[in-house]
Amino acid sequence: MANVVPGALERLPWDSEHFGFGVARWQAGEPDETELQAARQRGLDLGIALVYLSLRPDHAAGEQALRAVGAALVDRKTNLAKPLDAAPVWPNEVVEFMGTSPTSALTELALASGIRSRYLVDPRMPRECFQTLYRLWIQRSVARQIADAVLVVPGSQVEEGLVTVKAEGDGVARIGLIAVDARCRGRGLGSQLMRAAECWAVQRGCRRMEVVTQGDNQEALALYSRLGYRVDWTQHVWHWWLA
To answer: How far apart are CA 162 and CA 12, in angstroms?
Structure first.
């Protein structure tokens, strides 16, 4: 309970440390304006600058309360899923990256994958926070700490695309990062990366693939739809800056 701030805020140590300012999560369920107003000063007194809140899309009362205290909707978080009945043929263009640290091209692809991330679209979030987060994401993925495999389209000189995948248990695999170099788009590399990830998952006994994207990322949603993914659930994520 040491990280729970009075007023329904749960301090997030990792985010606070890496971003350099206090970050908390609203952990009391559906927000009420009276509760939010009471929590603001207590959060400020304890060094909280930013609060994450998540709501179901149809929660009109909660949305009204959040807008009243100045919170902003930064992500229509969308989880898509697909049953994996059989492994597709592994695309010849895709290989597993076996390095122990990301190349500069992989780092740039990781940053490109977050172009609609809430950490980038929120105008109050320092840009270096987004960059730090996604650089660490690819570093830890290559180190096999938060991903089981990093699959790439190698290209003639640098990697042209990447996807990270992890087997989460209970027959479910999840996509983490996915991106294609802007200069290489239009060649179907995104589809090939996804097929390779599905093949990797089936080979390890997974029977379901899931991926999260932003509801405003129409390009990603169209890709996943073409490949047979369907929306499983959606959630609206808000950022509330206390000052």
So the answer is: 29
pLDDT, position 88: 79
Sheet of 22-26: strand order equals 4-5, 9-11, 22-26, 48-55, 230-241, 72-83, 208-214, 172-180, 161-169, 149-153, 95-96
pLDDT digits (tens, 9 = 90+) for 130-162: 999 999 999 999 999 999 999 999 988 899 999
DSSP structure class, residue 182: G
Residue 213: which of 226, 199, 196, 229 has the closest Cα? 229
Q: Is the pLDDT of residue 79 over 50?
A: yes
- Report the sign of the C-alpha dihedral through residues 79, 80, 85, 88, in that order: negative
The string of pLDDT tens digits covering residues 27-44 is: 877 888 999 999 999 999
Reply yes or no on whether the pLDDT at 2 is more than 70.
no
CB contact set of 33 (below 8 Å; sequence gap of 6+): 64, 65, 68, 69
Beta strands of 69-197 (E only): which ranges?
A: 72-83, 95-96, 149-153, 161-169, 172-180
Using CA atoms, how far apart are residues 213 and 177, in angstroms rounded to an integer?
A: 10
The number of angstroms, rounded, from the C-alpha of 106 to the middle of its chain's C-alpha atoms is 17
Q: What is the DSSP string of 90-121?
A: PPTT-EE---SS--HHHHHHHHHHTTT-HHHH
